[in-house]
Amino acid sequence: RKEVEQDPGPFNVPEGATVAFNCTYSNSASQSFFWYRQDCRKEPKLLMSVYSSGNEDGRFTAQLNRASQYISLLIRDSKLSDSATYLCVVGRNNNDMRFGAGTRLTVKP
Amino acid sequence: GAVVSQHPSRVICKSGTSVKIECRSLDFQATTMFWYRQFPKQSLMLMATSNEGSKATYEQGVEKDKFLINHASLTLSTLTVTSAHPEDSSFYICSAKPGQGRADTQYFGPGTRLTVL
Description:
The structure holds two protein chains of two kinds. By secondary structure, chain A is mainly β. In chain A, 0% of the residues lie in helices and 58% in strands. In chain A, the strands form two sheets. In chain A, strands 2, 4, 5, 9, 10 and 11 form a six-stranded mixed β-sheet that branches. A five-stranded antiparallel β-sheet of chain A has the order 1-3-8-7-6, with no helix packed on it. In chain A, strand 6 (55-57) and strand 7 form a beta hairpin. Chain A is globular, with a radius of gyration of 13 Å. Chain B has strands at 4-7, 10-13, 19-25, 30-38, 45-51, 57-58, 67-73, 76-81, 90-98, 107-108, 112-116. By secondary structure, chain B is mainly beta. Chain B is built from no helices and eleven strands. The interface between A and B is medium-sized, with 23 and 24 residues.
């Protein structure tokens, strides 16, 4: 079983739609959680950290459920520029991050 | 924001040759740098963690004699793929972490696309 699992998609949604991605992790000792965005053939860029209390950054909302070992990302009012692969990342400690395979999102006009 | 560069961005080489990839933190000192590999449509896989002035720690299944890592200064780490073969063709990405920063302060380089013929 992979340590971080994501639905690979692809998710094809119209502009303005709301889309949600889920991620599960297997290591209960994981301490930190993130969503990264990766554009085609580029490096990953940090989108947001995920906190137990949930956090929101504009159109993006991330939630963490430690009991279920589950992380989610909600994107509201999708833009064409949101098209990318979204990587769920789980950190065991400050020097050990495990990446999910990513969920591909395409936002269409 | 913090900048990490990689050089070269793309390399094509013949089977059996060695390829060196440089990773530099341009505006901060990175005590820890990480090397990842990403095959098409797959996740980033951590290959090794390097700390300045000490030997790199390799992940299980990564051959340390094949993937030589040197972190000789606080701003430079190099990955040398020795005797490269076509199966080593991949996207190699480094990241750097300043000082005692948290995991989310890792800054990624733009990656190096290696093609071994």
